Amino acid sequence: MKYSITKALILLCLFIQASVFAQAPPEPMCQLTGTILSEGEPLPFATVTLANTTLGAASDLNGQFELGFIPEGEFTVKVQAIGYKPVEKILVFKRGEKVVLDVSLETDVLGLEQVVVTADRNEQKRTTASVIVNTLTPRLLENTQSVSIAEGLNYIPGLRLENNCQNCGFTQVRMNGMDGAHSQVLINNRAIFSNLAGVYGLELIPSSMIERIEVVRGGGSALYGSNAVAGTINLITRDPMNNSYDISTQHSSIGVGTDGKVASDYSLNMNTTIVSDDKKTGFALFGFYRDKDPFDANNDGYSESSKIENLTFGGRLYHRIDYRNKLTLDFIRVNEERRGGNGFDKPHHEADVSEAVDHKITTTALTYERFIGTGSLLSVYGSAQNVDRASYYGANQSLADYGQTDGLTFNVGTQFKSDFGKNSIVTGIELVHDDMLDQKLGYLDLIYDDNGNVIGSNGHVPNTVITDQNKNVYGVFAQYDRYFGPVKASVGARFDRYEITDLDHKEGNNSGNVFSPRLNILWDVAPSLQWRVSYSQGYRAPQVFDEDLHIETSGSRKVVHANAPDLKQETSHSYMTSVDFNRKIGNWNLGLLAEGFYTHLNDAFAQNPEYDESTGVTTYIRTNADNGATVKGVNFEANASPGNRIYLKAGYTIQSSVYGDAQELGEKDFLRTPDDYGFLSLDYDVLPRLCLIASATYTGKMKVAYYGTEFRPDDIIIEEDGIQGTIRTTPTFFDLGFKAEYDLKVAGLPFKAFAGIKNIFNSFQDDFDSGMDRDPAYIYGPTNPRTVYFGIKLSNVFGH
Predict the structure, then answer these.
(1) Are 82 and 207 in a shared domain?
(2) How far lies 592's CA from each of 156, 312, 479, in Å?
(3) How far is CA 59 from the centre of its chain?
(4) CATH number of residue 8's parent domain
């Protein structure tokens, strides 16, 4: 495996070197300067780029910019900023001359003109994308005071964050009624988020490092490979274009005014970007620290929310070799320790229950881009993610439940995009490799007397291999976009060859060939009305998934996950249609979206528990449901703004997810999946320096399984394979929060002070299972009770 990685990286470097030095153009000599305004005021941090080149700059605090080293010729200059409509100008440059460009940008309240990349692996305006792309901006993450990006995803239609474990706080994001394993997570367009990292996944990544998050609902395997069945979440990090800085700190008190003891949650964020005077080199650096105490909601001595300590840092470095060639290097390091259960001041094996993981995740990526001609771009990329995870999932002071999991994922490939007028084509090839080793660690089996004194030993218990698996996926993809008047058709396909090797047990070996087509049609019915329709096919390979590595633990039982020996790949057929209306009516900017989705899963993965009385272990066996499963529903979204001071964003989903046959505890419905849910965010600039914000999420009723011991008189108890359980229906939840932020200057430095409260009415689960023998998976609803927070932020962006 190491030889394969080394070989791939050497070939990548040789290709980049040959491409750069084979056709190095002469040093350009022209210059572009100017001022960017909005409503007569200077607009800082707007970007100015030359199309089909690597050249770009950003305006300073006075709205002024300067860009040199421009070759002679005619270029399209693009001026854009988040929240403003972009402007394009065709300019002619002559050697030794300075061109002056002054531009006034108009506000884009609804974000219609924002550039997105996730729709077709190609930069384009949202209004020209053949699928709906929702964008989660840093502003919305700040408005909702989302410490991690997972929290902010609640404010995208069709997405919902849920907590799956009282002990360790294992969370996942459901999209269009399907669990987290049905969604593909990308970092800067690359499928490098490994199955191992996905166990606690999106909650590990701080919101401060993100420039934006793009979400595409519906099957995307035709372009992004395995697991993009429900949709794709693309995390795009900041690209340095100017000299900037910001640092913020926040303190939260969790459980204020509830029956539980108040827990503290402290976080610190830092970001800075530095760009060289010649604009050829830029560096972005970010850092994040979080220290969160465990929260016990029912005062039984066991946590409902885990203890977390996180230190994350990273950066992005780019260098423009010349105006056609660019290198970008990304680095992210996540160090996080989390623990739930009780006995936090003791070693894990001395607590009654402890679930704990210690993550060390290192992600790197190198991308080379070469612009060719007037509309073509070649990208060659390589990225890798290494996960070192120490864990403990045990109860009853067990020494046998320490574990170590190591994983390495790398992704190498190349992509070529070319424009033909308004039409374009994207093609590429890539290899994704995922290697994982999961072990239970050995220990000295000591013998104790009745007083707890060591009196002997039964010897040393050796390490036990749980999973030793690697996966290779060789993919080829292509997509062609063509306009027919007001209609845009996008036809794409991907062919994957996956090979899964079980190095330990061998019965997990599996391979297959998958052809995934994709068809999207966009019709501009009117200037303010768009209609889209799409069909896509996706798949999930029969591999070890992220949730398989999470073990639910209590004093009475342990829950693990495994694949059936004859497990086949899951295949999806997805159909979507949407109507998107955006128009300015008087002073109102109004955007309305209605999106219908229907997905049928052939050989759908289903899990059924089997209990081993001799060990007390319950194993959820993943099998293929005979008659598959169907997920369908409608997403609604509304964006409204009467001017520039008030902005309203809301979303609502109605859906159903059912198997063709009864599954766990005789249920056909997907468990933990509400039939309706939604969100609301209101941003009101009361004064030039004062902003008031309201945000809320709604979670409808859903069915959940309960396997504890505290059954109610109205529970219908079902016993299967020695397991007793029941299905309960949860109440609805409405989580409402308010926030106020104020811009001020202290000693000439720009600050922003903020304070707020989340879940004002404490709309939170009130029937947690209790004690050492509780069912830790019996958890639902909002992830936190009433929480009060305050903080301050220093940034050179404020007040401009």
Answers:
(1) no
(2) 14, 38, 28
(3) 30
(4) 2.60.40.10
Backbone angles phi, psi at 220, to 5 degrees: -125, 15
On whether both 50 and 142 belong to a single domain, the answer is no
What pLDDT is attached to residue 2?
43
Residue 75 maps to a domain: yes
Residue 726: which domain range?
112-795
How far apart, in whole angstroms, are the C-alpha atoms of residue 317 and residue 330?
6
**pLDDT at residue 560, rounded to an integer:** 81
Question: Which residue stretches of the chain have pLDDT < 50?
Answer: 1-26, 799-800
**Does residue 209 lie in a domain region?**
yes
Q: Do residues 86 and 186 both lie within one domain?
A: no
How far is the CA of 395 from the CAs of 170, 238, 365, 772, in angstroms?
A: 18, 43, 40, 8
- Please list the residues that pair with 148 across neighbouring strands: 206
CB of 367 closer than 8 Å to CB of 327: yes
Give the pLDDT confidence score for residue 200 in this predicted structure.
Answer: 66
Token pair 């830029």 is found at: 282
Beta strands 171-175 and 244-254 are: unpaired
Say which CATH number the domain at 537 has. 2.40.170.20
DSSP assignments along 156-186, one per residue: STTEEEEE--TTT--EEEEETTB-GGGEEEE
Residue 599, CA atoms < 13 Å, CB-side half-sphere: 32
Pick the closest to residue 400 from 409, 408, 391 (CA basis).
391
Can you give the pLDDT at residue 547? 62
Identity of residue 717: I
What distance separates the 2 farthest-apart alpha carbons in the chain?
A: 92
- Which amino acid is residue 356, in one-letter code? A
Distance CA 64, CA 291 (A): 41
Looking at the domain assignment, is residue 800 inside a domain? no
Residue with tokens 């929290």: 151
**Phi, psi angle pair for 203, to nearest 5°:** -75, -15
Q: Give ∠ CA 284-274-24 in degrees, rounded to 5.
A: 90
pTM: 0.89
The Cα 450–Cα 741 span in angstroms is 61
Strand (E) or helix (H) holding 16? helix 2-22
Return the ∠ at Cα 673 (arms to 669 and 676), rounded to 5°.
110
Question: With contact defined as beta carbons under 8 Å apart, do 306 and 294 qualify?
Answer: yes
Instruction: Give Cα separations from 228 to 324, 395, 448, 571, 730 (angstroms).
Output: 33, 36, 52, 11, 29
